[in-house]
Amino acid sequence: MANIGILIAMVSFLPTAYGQSQRCTVPELSQCVCIKTEVYCEDIGLTEVPRNIPNTTTALVLDGNAITKIESASFFGLPSLEKLSLRDNKISSIETGAFDWLWSLTALFVDHSTEIDVPTEVLTAITTLTNLTRLDLTNCRISSEDLNLLSGLKSLQHLTLDNNDISYIKPGLFNGFLSLYHLSLRNTSLTAVSANIFDATTILKVLIIFDNPLMCCTMTDYFEWLPNQLPYLVVAGTCHDFNRTTDIRIFNTSHCTFPVDDQWSSWSTPTCSVTCGIGTGLRNRSCDSPPPSDNGKECIGSYTEAINCSLIACPEPYRRRGCKRRHGRGRK
């Protein structure tokens, strides 16, 4: 009986909005459900964004349909829209200016929704949404180069980039993202997460980097950066080195060794072949500054080099004798 009482108490706290849901009265939305200012058109076989969406709409959910194209006027007249979800569609084209009317939009979900091989136009359209605080681009075929288009979305708080082909992240990409507290990069192609993609200190609370081929010893700057972040930052992920996989939170970088390549020393001062005038000098250098270690590469190039040397002008008698040697007679 006690358990039943608890269950009844929990049910009483459920949102009442769903009890007020009803079919939308707008003919174009007859298959959709309207809850106050929210419109839900999920899994009803739509091939395009419905027309005549009320201009007071604050949330529009179009998940699980077969929408292939977002036209420039698809969201015209929706200045109050704060949340837009396009999950699990088949979007192959987004016209220029498609999101220009969404001045109030703060949350956008387009995960698992694109079928285009080059999603640049999707990201280009998103760059106009400078008020976004939440963005989900899971499985949108985004590459490392495409990712740079997000650098202007400084208001983001929650960013999900899972299941994309991101092999590296450009240094400084997240500089100035002062509100970003949740970043998920699960199952990409990253081999390293470097501290240089962030500011020196952040307000990150969650960093998810599971299911990536991360190499622990290539991330030493990240491990140095980590202690300067919030003490309750949750990092979820693993990295690989020394033939084992390690929880990234406990990896000890003191076990890492790094190849040191050979470096040339400075050239020695050459000894000139003449005592005056122009001659030839030979200079030397050594390959030990530092010497190689831990399979570092050896120097490339020559240990010696011949160069021209120019000393003070020779006295007049020397110049005359030189003239005789070259021309057979001297000047009187």
Quickly describe the structure.
The protein has 332 residues and is of the alpha/beta class. It is built from 5 helices and 18 strands. Residues 23-59 form the LRRNT domain.
Which helices and strands occur, and which strands form pairs?
Blueprint: H1 2-11, E1 22-23, E2 33-35, E3 38-40, E4 59-61, E5 69-70, E6 83-85, E7 93-94, E8 107-109, H2 120-126, E9 134-136, H3 144-147, E10 158-160, E11 182-184, E12 206-208, H4 220-225, E13 234-236, E14 238-241, E15 244-247, E16 271-272, E17 278-284, E18 304-310, H5 316-327
Parallel strand pairs: 3-4, 4-6, 5-7, 6-8, 8-9, 9-10, 10-11, 11-12, 12-13
Antiparallel strand pairs: 1-2, 2-3, 14-15, 16-17, 17-18
Signal peptide: 1-19
Pfam family, one: TSP_1
InterPro entries: Leu-rich_rpt, Leu-rich_rpt_typical-subtyp, LRFN, LRR_5, LRR_dom_sf, LRRNT, TSP1_rpt, TSP1_rpt_sf
What does this structure look like?
This is LRRNT domain-containing protein. Residues 1-19 form the signal peptide. Residues 23-59 form the LRRNT domain. It holds the Pfam family LRRNT. This protein has two domains: 19-255, Alpha-Beta Horseshoe (Leucine-rich repeat, LRR (right-handed beta-alpha superhelix)); 259-292 and 301-332, Thrombospondin type-1 (TSP1) repeat (TSP-1 type 1 repeat, Single Sheet), CATH 2.20.100. By secondary structure, it is α/β, with parallel strands linked by helices. Mean pLDDT is 85; it is low at 1-19 and 322-332. The protein is 12% helix and 18% strand. The strands form four sheets. The protein has an eleven-stranded mixed β-sheet, with no helix packed on it.
